[in-house]
Amino acid sequence: MLAIIKAEQLKWKRTFIPKLLWLTPLITLLISAVLMGGEYFQTGAYNWWYTMLLPGALTICCALVIEKDKKLKYHSILALPLGLKKVWLGKILSSGIWLFLITSMFFGGITAGGWLFGHSLPITSSLLSSLVIFVTFLWQIPLCLFLAAKLGTYLAILLNVVANIVGIVVFADGELWYCYPFAIGARLLCSTLGILPNGLPVPEGSSLLNNDVIFPGLLITIAWFIIISLLTTKWFQKREAK
Q: Full-prediction pTM beyond 0.90?
């Protein structure tokens, strides 16, 4: 599996995927520095990050992972002496590593920015928030790979970004947040950051500050990740029969 992951990552060399790793966090931090700055720099950056820029960057990454093989009608993959199950899981895992790296780069940048502006979130809250973002976005990787393979790059980006926005705007601060997986990350971040998805502070005494939802929320998204990975793997394996 390690060889498959390395082979997938080698395909990225002449794509936009490596640039997204540093460019997306940089753009996020610059937007927050210009529009928010000062004591609101970090909370503003987190809001821009998980509501718009990370969903878009993750979908683009997954679409580019699929694009080269799709152009060749997957003939290069079908010719390999490997099961398609391993190939698909390799794409999921390599994209998961990319998500971990871009999350780590954002965490490093936002921590340095907090020190620069002289107002920092507690390092434990920021680290926990980044961990929440990583885990709650993992399940979108197999979904975005599937959407890109079935619908193409542009429609996959549109659908995933819109679905994230709907989750944040409609479900994140409601009682049914756990029913809509796109809303779970935003709901948990209300607890870890104390900030609503619209950027305003969570009111004191609000149930949104309850940390008891963090662990169940993470378990739900991990379950979604496993389920969607299994379903999309079975779908991809059917190409062997064609």
A: yes
